[in-house]
Write a structure and sequence with these properties.
The chain has 315 residues and is of the alpha/beta class. The protein folds into two domains: 5-119 and 167-313, Carbamate kinase, CATH 3.40.1160; 129-163, no CATH class. The chain has helices at 24-43, 55-67, 76-101, 137-147, 174-182, 214-224, 256-264, 273-286, 300-304, and strands at residues 5-10, 47-52, 108-110, 114-116, 129-135, 151-153, 159-163, 170-171, 186-188, 195-199, 205-207, 229-234, 240-241, 249-250, 253-255, 291-296, 310-313. Bound molecules: adenosine-5'-diphosphate and phosphoric acid mono(formamide)ester (CP). Phosphoric acid mono(formamide)ester is lined by residues 12, 53-55, 192-193, 211, 213-214.
Length: 315
């Protein structure tokens, strides 16, 4: 079997089995479960570059600083970097432990990664990315008034703070990531989509208050590293049309033309399935031979073996 260079984008369920339990203890337990399907792929000989979300975690870190009396407020990009460290540490520990259990001796590096965004990205004018906990409509109104947050209803699950989500332009640490991957190490990178920075010229970077979509950041690093595969792992085994309706149909395969049509028809929810499909399309279109798969965490191994998931193909 061909050994692939695989960029994995881990969804929220890979870090919080119960979205209401946001404790570090619970996250580490979930990370240990997440490590198993990831190490299945490493055991098969694939090179793994792992990205993950950070919406709940970065929101929690920001809220903690805001609630702490006598402590200066922590800027958003710094909170993003903290979330990369916190989540990266858990995944790093969990993956290493699972590899050792199976007699695999590899290092796992969790990198604080900066991702360049365009300061004129339209995303800055229209915040869409939900972060942190869920609130009732009443609580949301209060937060909006007291803290000036922009609050939006999140797919019937409650109200959440939203921040800007600009598109990733470049990954600052890409050469280092490539060196580590080429040397056979497992790399955790562009966590939370990367810490968003703008390029001020002459090598000066400045963090901006935003959260980059981790599916788009994963796509970007997959292109830069010339990966064979982009695998987006979420809570569903397959992408569906007519999702959650009586005529729901799960897709084994989707061409770019079909995906464009389904997007036009509104089958993929913005902020959840839509960015995944768009990231998969972009990767497949970027170079012939590149493959993209959307499936569940548990089915990652079967998915890469072509047994399940939704494969996105050129035609
Ligand atoms: N057309 C669709 N097909 C499958 N799932 C969909 C679709 N539209 C929305 N979803 C929902 O989107 C979820 C994935 O988005 P989300 O939970 O935001 O991602 P993440 O796994 O990155 O945290 C799925 O678990 C499913 O509930
Ligand atoms: N950064 C990011 O996309 O986070 P979530 O997947 O948690 O929304």
């Amino acid at each position: 079997m061909k050994k692939d260079r695989v960029v994995i984008a881990l969804g929220g369920n890979a870090l919080q089995a119960d979205p209401k339990d946001t404790t570090a203890e619970s996250q580490l337990i979930t990370a240990k479960a997440t490590a198993k399907p990831l190490v299945d792929l490493i055991e098969e000989g694939h090179e793994l570059i792992i990205a993950h979300g950070n919406g709940p975690q970065v929101g929690q870190i920001v809220a903690t600083y805001e609630a702490a009396a006598g402590v200066p407020t922590m800027p958003f990009p710094e909170c993003g970097a903290m979330s990369q460290g916190y989540i990266g540490y858990h995944l790093q520990q969990a993956i290493r432990e699972e590899m050792l259990r199976r007699g695999i001796h590899k290092s796992v590096a969790a990198l604080i990664t900066q991702v360049v965004v365009d300061k004129n990205d339209p995303g800055f004018k229209n915040p869409t990315k939900p972060v942190g906990s869920f609130f009732s409509a009443e609580e949301a109104k209060k937060l909006q008034e007291e803290k000036g947050y922009i609050m939006k209803e999140d797919a019937g699950r409650g109200w959440r703070r939203v921040v800007a989500s600009p598109e990733p332009v470049d990954v600052v640490e890409a050469p280092m990531i490539k060196t580590l991957v080429d040397a056979g190490h497992v790399v955790i990178t562009v966590g939370g989509g990367g810490v968003p920075v703008i390029d001020k010229g002459n090598g000066v970077l400045e963090g901006v208050p935003a959260v980059i979509d981790k599916d788009f950041a994963s796509e970007k690093i997959a292109e830069i590293l010339d990966a064979d595969y982009l695998i987006i792992l979420t809570a569903v085994e397959k992408v569906a049309i007519h999702f959650n309706k009586p005529n729901q149909k799960e897709l084994d395969r989707m061409t770019i033309a079909e995906a464009k049509q389904y997007i036009e028809e509104g089958h993929f929810a913005p902020g959840s399935m839509l960015p995944k499909v768009k990231a998969a399309m972009k990767f497949v279109e970027s170079k012939p031979g590149r493959k993209a798969l959307i499936t569940s965490l548990e089915k990652a191994k079967e998915g890469i073996e072509g047994k399940t998931g939704t494969v996105i193909v050129r035609e």
